[in-house]
Hints:
By secondary structure, this protein is an alpha/beta fold. The chain is built from eight helices and seven strands.
Amino acid sequence: xxxxxxxKTIVVTGAGSGIGAAIARGLAAEGANVVLADLNDAAADAVxxxxxxxxxxxxxxxxxxxxxxxxxxxxxxxxxxxGRVDVWFNNAGMNAPMPFLDITEENFERIMxxxxxxxxxxxxxxxxxxxxxxxxxxxxNTASIAGRTGFPSFAPYSASKAAVISLTxxxxxxxxxxxxxxxGFAPGVVATPLWTxxxxxxxxxxxxxxxxxxxxxxxxLGRAAQPEDIVPTAVFLAASDSDYITGxxxxxxxxxxxx
Length: 259
């Protein structure tokens, strides 16, 4: 199969739905062997099946990004099936909004563990495999506009995505001597199951002014993103087109945050 990432083996965490599922399908359409790593086995299996039905190569694996053992197992299963790992997407994430003065340590730590520690573990384990393959490789992290500007109704999420941006920069500096690039992208409002749940949570808190419709009104291009809007940038970052880019976060948010 020809395509911009033809023959590359690419792991996408959180690939069972939303942005991750769209990225996985987009990469497969461009010729990649795609490994769908998700805590939800059934969701990952369904996306993998859809890729196979379309003629692509895929593998679904159960991964808890906060559990290094399962991440290592995903690497091992990927190598066993496809021979190597070329690109690793740290995409899995979660949110659990609370009013700022009500945020608990448990809430903060849970979100940071998935969104920030999970990215750290993913970068480390992917990089170890890349180095074992004699260098090269790409890590791509899902950040957020919330990592550039804090939102009071989901401050821990904002902090976790700021951490993703910093981890991207730190890893890029550390891994460059091995020929490994580390980049990310920062979506804004994207119509996904995560946003549907977030909207319901914010409404229950009485913070509907920070919800989907309210935040969409600030987008210069006049609409929320669909998961498919993220795919071209994801493919670009996974392909050789981006070989001379590292340590960068590309915004994909229709003009919400201008910096």
